[in-house]
């Protein structure tokens, strides 16, 4: 596995499974929670692309997750979130929450001012353009 660059995980991997993995550049996680986002920078510091299925619950939560990921993984370029529900618990659509989170992230850090958002078919894609 020394040349493994992409990992597709259908379940949350147990903590010990992360350690023997070589540096991966792409992670496609069908199930994730806040723990995955929190531990990811330690276990995949060279990640450039992250695809996850996730339930977006609030602007603050999403902006915190995005800020943390982009600041702690300098190589990260794309975070693609397939949302479980397109209408969130407070009645907002995921696009509205994603747009507001994008503005918060861009205001928080100058490096992330080039972060862009595309929302289509229940997927929110955050892409960091390098200038």
Largest sheet: 6 strands, mixed
pLDDT below 50 for ≥5 consecutive residues: which ranges?
A: none
Give the SSE order as H and E letters.
EHEHEHEHEE
Strand percentage = 15-25%
Number of helices: 4
Q: Count of DSSP E strands?
A: 6
State the separation between the terminal residues, measured CA to CA.
34 Å
Helix-strand makeup class: alpha/beta
**Percentage of helical residues?**
25-40%
The gyration radius over C-alpha positions equals 14 Å
Q: Please, how many domains?
A: 1
Global mean pLDDT: 81
| Dominant shape | globular
**Main sheet strand line-up:** 1-2-3-4-6-5
Features:
131 residues; alpha/beta; 6-stranded mixed beta sheet; 4 helices
What does this structure look like?
- Helices cover 33% and strands 24% of the residues.
- Strand 2 (26-29), helix 2 (34-43) and strand 3 form a beta-alpha-beta unit.
- The chain starts with 5 loop residues before the first strand and ends with a strand.
- Helix 2 packs parallel to helix 3 and helix 3 crosses helix 4.
- The protein has 131 residues and is an alpha/beta fold.
- A six-stranded mixed sheet has the order 1-2-3-4-6-5, covered by helices on one side.
- The mean pLDDT is 81.
- The protein contains four helices and six strands.
């Amino acid at each position: 596995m020394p040349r493994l660059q992409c990992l597709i995980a259908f379940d949350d991997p147990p903590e010990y499974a992360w350690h023997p993995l070589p540096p991966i550049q792409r992670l496609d996680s069908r199930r994730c929670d806040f723990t995955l986002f929190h531990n990811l920078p330690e276990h995949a510091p060279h990640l450039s692309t992250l695809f996850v299925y996730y339930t977006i619950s609030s602007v603050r939560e999403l902006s915190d997750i995005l800020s943390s990921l982009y600041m702690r993984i300098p190589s990260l370029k794309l975070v693609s979130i397939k949302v479980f529900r397109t209408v969130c618990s407070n009645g907002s659509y995921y696009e509205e929450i994603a747009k507001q989170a994008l503005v918060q992230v861009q205001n928080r850090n100058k490096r992330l001012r080039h972060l862009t958002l595309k929302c289509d078919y229940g997927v929110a894609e955050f892409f960091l353009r390098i200038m």
